[in-house]
Amino acid sequence: MPFDTPVAPAPAAVRLPLSVAQRDIWTAHALDPTGVKYNVAECREILGPVDPELMAAAWLRLVEEADFLRVRGFEDDGEQVWQLVDAAGADAGNTAPRSLPFTDVSAADDPEAEAWRLIDGMISAPFDLIRRPPVRCALIKLGEERYFYFYGFHHLVVDGVGVSMALARLVELYERAVAGEPWGPSPFGSLADLLAEDAEYRGSERAAADLAAWREHLDGAPDAPAGLVRGTGRAPAAHGGLPFARRSVRVSAADADRLRAVARGERVSWSVLLVALFSVYLHRVTGREELVLALPVTGRTTRQARSTPGMLSNVVPLRLRVRPGEPLGALVRSAAAEVKHGLRHQLTRYEDLCRAAGTVDGSRRLAAPVLNIMGFHAELTVCGRPTLNHNVSNGPVDDLAVAVLDLGAGNGLRIDFDTPVDGVDTASVAAHQDRFAAFLTTVLAADRPAERRIADLDVLSDAERALLTGPWAGPVADTAGTAGTTLVERFEEQAARHPDGTALIDGERSVTYAELNAAANRWARHLVARGLGRGDLAGVLLERGVRFATAVLAVLKTGAAHVLLDPDFPDERLRAAAADAGIRHLLTRPSLAGRLDGPWATHTEAPGELLSYGPGNPGLPVAPDDPACLMFTSGSTGRPKAILSSHRNLVSTLVGQPYLPTGPDQVYLQCSPVSWDAFSLEFWGGLLHGGTVVLQPGQKPEPALVTELARRHGVTTLLLSATLFNYLTDEHPEAFSTVTTAFTVGEAASPAHVHKLQRIEPGITILNGYGPAEVMIFATTHTVEPGERPHTAIPIGTPLVNKASYVLDPHLNLCPPGTTGELYVAGEGLAHGYLGRPDLTAVRFVPNPFGPGRLYRTGDLARFDAEGRLVYEGRADDQIKIRGFRIEPGETEAALLTHPGVAQAVVTVHEKRLAAYVVTDGDSHSDTHPDLHPEEIRRHVAERLPEHLVPTYLTLLDRLPVTPNGKIDKRALPAPTALLATRRAPRTRTEETLVALFGTTLETTDPIGIDDSFFALGGHSLLAARLTNHIADVLGVRLTIRDVFGSPTV
Predict the structure, then answer these.
(1) Model confidence band, residue 96 (pLDDT cutoffs 50, 70, 90)
(2) Which of 183, 193, 166 is nearest to 309 (CA)?
(3) φ and ψ of 467, to 5 deg
(4) Who wins on pLDDT, 818 or 214?
(5) CB of 779 within 8 A of CB of 770?
(6) What CA–CA distance (Å, rounded) separates 718 from 656?
(7) Superfamily covering domain 197-219+236-377+398-459
(8) Strand partners, 510
(9) How much is the pLDDT for 378?
(10) Are 920 and 957 in contact (CB under 8 A)?
(11) Which of 437-451, 545-559, 1019-1033 has the lowest mean pLDDT?
């Protein structure tokens, strides 16, 4: 057999530098020399006979021709270089591959399984880059006309295109051997020339121009989405012993043909169309309208590069803007332009772009996910017999990587979804695989798909849509017999059923249902005689106690709705709330009446002064949809929003709901501020079911009192803000000794504290509750099971009965499971809207596209996990929550701007406290105007807003930093400044002790003076509770939170 045309042997000592593309891989391998993440491999299935000896001869000729098959790593004075080894093995012990291993498994019970077992063993073994070239190939016989040719390499020496070039040449050499023809000249260039060309480019003006073009192109680009397949569910199995998992799906030949046809119609390649379709899919599953994809490219722009197998491949970022209102064709044209830009500048290494963007530490990504479109050599035949390509590994997988393989004419496409093994949820990967394949089929089957609006391209499968609008949206039940009643009817039923049962406990006083009902009836008759009636709003300004509870019931029995006014609020806030509500009557007591003058009838009489009125139920008309209460929540315009809710909203949330323990044996503690909707659960949760309500003195929950009252009265149901829940679990776990059901609400639940309490009280049921005031108390709840992962974020759970929840994109399309979108709530708990604000009501309460009624747009971001539970993901706007309070920074900013010396203001959050930044009037300076001292500005705000809206930090600036487009750049704001008075040192030993306790409680080592306010230093009500504990332990004096609020300095 005339195997002529010898290849000139390489000198044994030839050394070559590593290319830029190879240096980072070398470093990564040096850090993990036993790792296999950079192993790349394919298996070519040959559907015909193969002569192993001739194939081995062709293989040895290929080794002579292709330099990459004969290199090994070497370090020369700290510099990484290649040593090019002679094919004859001149460098003993560092030889090039001398033969092609052949194995016959055709006699095995399952030849294919045995072949893949051998392949798995080869690809999962690490390469030794120093001792020999990182090459591992084999020929495996499965049958007389079925062979596997396996070829595996370390990514350091070759990329996919180089492998494909070598494979094509190997087949050509084999066919020449079969035909008895000469080998012919080698088509390959030399590796030395390739590396020299690469080095020349790196130092050229073109390289600098390419990098500059990328910098400009990517300026302002968002970080790429990460964690598309992250989760805590069942992890996927490793792929053939490699550190990644793979799921594959086939695209039919018919769909592949339609893909090419649509692409031809748009005058683009099918790969560009696929980029556009994948971008639409990512837009729908991430909610992002701007994406940066990672597209692998050949990195071959010259004749030398196109003729030399080696490692040149690169990744280019594709910055794509998906505009839902535009047709798909517009995105296809944009994708074509973006691909053209990427190919024009493809020689700039992706690693250099990451360094320029500051993403090399892995905390964020410049581009993701990877979309690798591999269409080379799909039609390869061996001696006229067809072959099939089986891709085994494309290299490292850090997140989701999608590879699309052209399987040749009539075979369609294969799409591989590669993911890491650790921290990945198998169900999430499977969902992406099935969903994207179905999405392609649906889009391509449509009439003129390029003309369809992107917003109308649905990525949901029928099964997913059925889940999201059915079971996962929440249970539905006929509640005509429950929600069709009113608070008044439900309470009066309980009073008739349990007349001698204890309704209220207030200190040492107990009130039965009969006594409470009679007192409320007398007061209601008096109020009706004074003009209060159905449809009116009546303010209640009373401290928590029996008189307060009676007033609430009395107002409702008249047919009016109550507006609960917190006596702890500043007078200006109370006046604004009463005026905004348009109250016609005010129920208060003489000592409070002077705080709230206005055009309303004021009632200061005590229930005991109304004995002349009959004790029977008034029987006045009240309907389920009549307003029952008006609550205020923070408003972004500076004015709080007034939420008007009905009897139906309350009853449907508190009656017939499995989450809520009910009955005469239940004891509720009412300790939440009366301005919260949580008040309604604590108050009505007992009174609508014959239970007992224990009233905590004071307007704020005090941990010591909560603990004492819970133990003394055997409280069974306790609702707490997450902050208070955590505090009691740490400091007063005895508060839960009789509690059977505890709710943690208002903020993200702490898994550590929840599981700690479960260990302390094994029988307790703990629920994480979620719900804005607009949907009344709760929209969803999650019961935390003792076996749940202790360090995993606790879901906000599943919807209540008849309170459907949906996760939607900005166009009100359902988001796929696992995709973050905005949470919308429907059903019987929805408020009427915002009193006097039809514009805002129309924005937040929108028509329900999935059923009758409306949806409330919560502004909260959430996603459904694989089990159909909602997981909270933050806010879609600037609204925040601190210690359970809903806060619009705009409301605090508006109060700051009412100060005559403040010109600009912005409010942010720092360490769970409000931080204000203020620019004063140009003619005003704090050193010449005492009223411009930060403490005075803070006092100005405190006179207008509740304590939770008053900033802890207040920093004076000459100007506010802005972004290039003129918006305030909050990320550029300096660290906030604490508000400190002119400092006076402690004068006595007691003052020294108190100063030390201030510092301990606030966890600060900064100097504290005796005139510094505990709250200006960062304190709040729960820290005040902790301070009282410290003072009791050290000084033996028991104070209350009210004492600290009344005297906040040493």
Answers:
(1) low
(2) 166
(3) -65, -45
(4) 214
(5) yes
(6) 19
(7) Nonribosomal peptide synthetase, condensation domain (3.30.559.30)
(8) 505
(9) 64
(10) no
(11) 1019-1033
Rounded CA separation 803/827 (Å):
4
Highest CATH level, class, for 15-188:
alpha beta
Least Cα distance to 488 among 523, 529, 520, 528 occurs for 520
Among 573, 710, 594, residue whose Cα is nearest residue 640:
573
- Specify burial of residue 185 (Cβ count, 10 A radius: 0-12, 13-18, 19+): exposed
Of 3.30.300.30, 1.10.10.10, 3.40.50.970, 3.40.50.150, which CATH number belongs to 888-972?
3.30.300.30
Question: Above pLDDT 70, what percent of the chain?
Answer: 91
Instruction: Give the rounded distance of the alpha carbon of 415 from its chain centre.
Output: 27
Which are the contacts of 168, defined by CB distance < 8 A and separation ≥ 6?
377, 380
Amino acid at 782: H
Task: List the domain boundaries for the chain.
Answer: 15-188, 197-219+236-377+398-459, 888-972, 989-1046
Q: For the segment 21-72, what is each residue's pLDDT rounded down to a tens digit?
A: 788 888 888 788 888 888 999 999 999 999 999 999 999 999 999 999 988 8
What is the architecture of the domain spanning 989-1046?
Orthogonal Bundle (1.10)
More confident of the two residues 1046 and 673: 673
Q: What is the tens place of the pLDDT at every residue in 621-639?
A: 999 999 999 998 876 556 7
Residues 6+ apart with CB under 8 A from 435: 281, 285, 459, 460, 461, 464, 816
The backbone region for 633, taken as left when phi is positive above 0, alpha when psi lies in -120 to 50, beta otherwise, is beta
Average pLDDT of the segment spanning 360-383:
79
| The pLDDT value given to residue 101 | 94
Q: What is the pLDDT of residues 853-884, one digit of tens each?
A: 999 999 899 989 888 999 988 877 666 666 65
Q: What percent of the chain has pLDDT over 90?
A: 54
Token output for 719: 């609702």
Task: Give the pLDDT score at 883.
Answer: 61
Query: What strand order describes the sheet that includes 15-17?
Result: 15-17, 79-84, 71-76
Answer whether 739's CB lies under 8 Å from 720's CB: no
197-219+236-377+398-459 shares its CATH topology with 888-972: no
The pLDDT value recorded for residue 9 is 46
C-alpha angle 916-921-927 in degrees, rounded to nearest 5:
80
Q: Outline where 475-512 has alpha helix (H).
A: 487-497
In this structure, the dihedral spanned by the alpha carbons of residues 70, 74, 79 and 80, taken in order and rounded to 10 degrees, is 50
Q: What residue type is 26 in one-letter code?
A: W
Burial letters 544-570, b for 16+ CB under 10 A, else e: bbbbbbbbbbbbbbbbbbbbbbbbbbb
- Using the predicted structure, report yes or no on whether residue 788 has a pLDDT greater than 80: no
Amino acid, res. 955: T
Identify whether the C-beta of residue 671 lies closer than 8 Å to the C-beta of residue 701. yes
